[in-house]
Structure formats: C-alpha cells, structure tokens
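Journal club side-thread
Mid-discussion, someone asked how the predicted structure for our own chain would compare to the paper's figures. Pasting it here so we can look after the session.
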Amino acid sequence: MTMTMKVYEVDRWGAVRVLREEAEVVPLIEVEPTSVLPPCKCPRCEGRAS
C-alpha cells in the first residue's frame, strides 16, 4: 500500500507555494515508540551543538 504526499507552505495571506511535488511513499510497517526526536540534519542546523 502506498500513500501520496505533497509538501507545501501557506503564508499568512493564504498564498500557497509547493515545496515538493506529489510523490508516492511507502509507510513504515512498524514505528518504534519514542518521545525523542532525531537530531536535525538540515544545513542550517548541521553545525550547531545539541
């Protein structure tokens, strides 16, 4: 079973901008229960100490 996902942002005036076009993704079968989020790997946060 696949799902479709599309990433977009909406500004405060209601304008919509697509960040990633619609794509098919396969959901995980089992998700590990945890309350801790993984560290961010984006370029902005990459060099910052946790």
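Post-session note: The two ends are 37 Å apart (CA to CA).
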